[in-house]
């Protein structure tokens, strides 16, 4: 067998990326994603594409923030691993899969081939997530009316709330940030992401109980692919009252009032309370996502 040749693409040969079959339906999941041709790479063996990866970032980013499309042909795990190893960017890898992929033999085999390639390249599993999508036919979730929502222009208020929220969290990305740099890093990473989103800062809201106590925050946002539930968080002392649903309902209404015709969302599969809230609010699971991170970064 000849060695695989790793090739970065350009506008003139970007069509090579489409030469590999798409058994896991990644293309449908990326209908609204805009990829840069020069951030796409393929592995070829005897002139045939046997692995591909698309690195992705926002329109103003100088480097990609993740890999969110990665495929390998059957038996080509090593070519896929070399594609990842040789890339100039070592960033988080997201593998998007159809819902219930474990129950279908062909989908499971395809997914596990991609996992094997990622691990061979030095990536480690971080978390498995549910991906949601609300559409108008689902109906707007009822607003319980228990909390008082308001805009808050001071970032330090959100920073302090995020520190409190992440002091007791199930979120794998937040836990990794805490392990690396404590609660301050976890809170700052969230703020940096919210500011990175191309949606108005004025949308961010804090929520108080009728007695005036802080209950939590919600961030309606747009990422480059469209409207999304950016963040839902309840401070620890207010948990157990179901306020995460109130925040999610308000976030959904606010996005629709600002023109959203669909809304995406995501949560870690181990975050059972938030998964229940998404279901209650009319957000069905449309896909699953497996997040890997380069080895050597804290998990």
TrEMBL record:
SUPFAM superfamilies: Acyl-CoA N-acyltransferases (Nat). It holds the Pfam family Acetyltransf_1. Gene3D superfamilies: 3.40.630.30. This is GNAT family N-acetyltransferase. It comes from Streptomyces similanensis. It comes from the Bacteria. Residues 163-299 form the N-acetyltransferase domain. InterPro entries: Acyl_CoA_acyltransferase, GNAT_dom.
């Amino acid at each position: 067998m000849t060695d695989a040749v790793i090739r970065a693409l350009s506008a003139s040969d970007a069509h090579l990326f489409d030469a590999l079959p798409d058994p896991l339906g990644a293309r449908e999941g990326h209908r609204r994603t805009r990829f840069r041709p020069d951030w796409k790479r393929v592995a070829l063996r005897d002139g045939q594409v046997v692995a591909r990866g698309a690195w992705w970032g926002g329109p103003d980013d100088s480097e990609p923030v993740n890999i969110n499309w990665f495929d390998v042909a059957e038996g080509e795990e090593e070519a896929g691993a070399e594609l990842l190893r040789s890339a100039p960017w070592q960033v988080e890898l997201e593998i998007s899969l159809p819902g219930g992929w474990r129950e279908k033999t062909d989908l499971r085999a395809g997914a596990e081939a991609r996992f094997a390639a990622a691990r061979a390249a030095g990536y480690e599993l971080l978390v498995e997530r549910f991906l949601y999508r609300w559409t108008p036919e689902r109906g707007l979730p009822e607003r319980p009316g228990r909390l008082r929502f308001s805009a808050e222009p001071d970032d330090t208020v959100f920073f302090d709330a995020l520190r409190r929220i992440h002091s007791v969290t199930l979120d794998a990305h937040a836990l990794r940030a805490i392990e690396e740099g404590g609660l301050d890093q976890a809170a700052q990473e969230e703020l940096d992401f919210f500011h990175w989103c191309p949606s108005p800062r004025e949308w961010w809201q804090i929520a108080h109980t009728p007695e005036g106590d802080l209950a939590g925050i919600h961030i309606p946002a747009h990422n480059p692919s469209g409207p999304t539930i950016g963040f839902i968080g309840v401070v620890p002392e207010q948990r157990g009252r179901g306020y995460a649903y109130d925040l999610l309902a308000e976030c959904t209404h606010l996005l629709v009032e600002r023109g959203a015709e669909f809304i995406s969302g995501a949560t870690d599969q181990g975050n059972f309370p938030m998964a229940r809230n998404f279901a209650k609010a009319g957000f069905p699971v449309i896909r699953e996502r497996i997040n890997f991170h380069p080895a050597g970064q804290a998990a």
